[in-house]
Amino acid sequence: MEDAVTRTGSPSEVPSQHGELQAAIERLGVLVEDLERVVRQEIRSAFVEEFQMLGAASQRAAEALHGVRRAASMRIAAWAVALSVACSAIPVVVSWAVIPSRAALAQMRRERDELAASVDRLQLQGGKIDLQRCGVERRLCVRIERSAPAYGPQADYLVVKGY
Fold first, then answer.
1. Which of 21, 55, 81 finishes a domain?
2. Which domain holds residue 153?
3. Domain stop point among 66, 81, 96
4. 8 Å CB contact between 160 and 144
5. What predicted TM-score, i.e. pTM, was given to this entire model?
6. Cα separation of 122 and 130, whole Å?
């Protein structure tokens, strides 16, 4: 025990050292509390700063996504307009190429009327005559009206059927 006394001092000095030790422990406790407060404050500051940077990065990402969405919407709208124009233009071009113009229609009507008049004229001139090749020798034959009388000086002319 003497060793302990010599190391720590005399027994009368122990209470004063104990007081100093107690004061040092209290100061150390205060310093630890201050250090803890400072560390917490630094952690909070770092945490807030990181969250602010994360929020700013998120905001930039959201703005970029909105820009991409706007660009995609514009591209889709452009494709829709182009497709609508193409779908509208194709029938117009086809009808322009296939349907004749007013002048061409008028010309075709004139030709039709002329052809109809020619057919009428040809029918009056014998266009309804039914001619065929008959017999082994393939002679030219005509269909006649049997109920009609014969004509000519020798009665060798007969009326063609349909006239």
1. 81
2. 130-163
3. 81
4. yes
5. 0.39
6. 13
